[in-house]
């Protein structure tokens, strides 16, 4: 395992240090939006998260290419041509038409306060707009949805409207079972997840030391990062969350706190994976657009569309290496 961890660190460090420089000169790197989007959809589908799907080459798309090539035994880790060829075969259509169904209005609360204490009296931490729901549902952000629907009024979306979206398997908030727990699994519990807080990536390995997946993350604040080796002890979908401002800011449990209801706009998003390090977990987020760009207290945040896939890859008993 050690050699693989070192290699992962090296790969991401090189990608970061180059600051996407090779992407400007390498003829294998596509330049047009639709080709890049196709590759992003392909990588997302194969569990190598490129961040939000937006048809632009950013840090996490570049790292997803490197990690995908490594995981599949390709010697040229920075070659996009092979991935583009695979993407063209696997993702022939990059956009889909999505008709907004009436059931989705249950998951939108336009007046949900931004202030968590005020929001705590609501029964559900819903989306604040249909646009926010659609963007997260299709692994992108509101700006990109608006860009590919130039004739639509994004502020007035309603059931029956048809919206163009990235052709990706949707994150279906209505399919998440409230308070669903996930038990140990002989295979999944034997996996290891490596959280690289410097490169803001989490990679999952099988017990045979094969990289299975890698996702962008937001690590905790430097003073609170729980460097070391831990285990996943609990996993639950859409739990409530004890919001303790003092703990989040200072790392010390405070006396004043309140319960945040479950939902996609909860500070922990749609899933909580508690570690053997007390108070620390892997979880979703209310703000997927900020993954990799802002810091939480001591936990590790994933975009909700990535976080909800964790039970397919890890379970209680999984080793967690934070570095």
The strands making up the biggest β-sheet line up spatially as 5-4-3-12-6-9-10-11
Helix content: 25-40%
Radius of gyration: 19 Å
Can you write the helix and strand succession as a string? HHHHHEHHHEEEEEEHEEEEHE
Attribute tags:
globular, 323 residues, 8-stranded mixed sheet, single chain, 10 helices, alpha+beta
Detailed description of the structure:
- By secondary structure, the chain is an alpha+beta fold.
- Helix content is 27%, strand content 17%.
- It has ten helices and twelve strands.
- The chain has helices at residues 2-18, 21-25, 33-45, 59-71, 81-90, 116-119, 130-137, 142-147, 245-250, 304-307; strands at residues 95-99, 162-166, 192-196, 201-205, 211-216, 228-237, 241-243, 258-260, 271-275, 281-283, 300-301, 319-322.
- Strands 5-4-3-12-6-9-10-11 form an eight-stranded mixed sheet. It has a two-stranded antiparallel ribbon with strand order 1-2.
- The protein starts with a helix and ends with a strand.
- Residues 13-19 have low confidence and may be disordered.
Describe the secondary structure blueprint for this structure.
Blueprint: H1 2-18, H2 21-25, H3 33-45, H4 59-71, H5 81-90, E1 95-99, H6 116-119, H7 130-137, H8 142-147, E2 162-166, E3 192-196, E4 201-205, E5 211-216, E6 228-237, E7 241-243, H9 245-250, E8 258-260, E9 271-275, E10 281-283, E11 300-301, H10 304-307, E12 319-322
Parallel strand pairs: 3-12, 10-11
Antiparallel strand pairs: 1-2, 3-4, 4-5, 6-9, 6-12, 7-8, 9-10
Helix pairs in contact: 1-4, 3-5
